[in-house]
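Feature request, filed as a ticket because there's no other form

It would be nice if the structure record came with a short human-readable summary line next to the tokens. Right now we just get the raw output. Example of a typical job, pasted below so the devs can see what we mean:
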Amino acid sequence: MAAKKTSNRSKPSGKRKVKKVMHEYKHGELKSGRGGKVKSRKQAVAIGLSEARKAGAHIPRKKSSSKKRSK
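Raw output as currently delivered:
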């Protein structure tokens, strides 16, 4: 019998958190650090994913493209 394939999809709780953060970003309410407004869409997404992970949602990390070096 074949092994069950794991899913790389995030749970609905994580999606809700990211949706909430993006709503705050669009309305200019999202802050980062010591109260600085977030101006970058990418930064807003990163904040949402980070908060979702802290809340316990299973969201896979971004796969890094590590370069292999030969000696």
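Something like this underneath would help us a lot:
The chain has a mean pLDDT of 80.
The beta strands are 31-32, 36-37.
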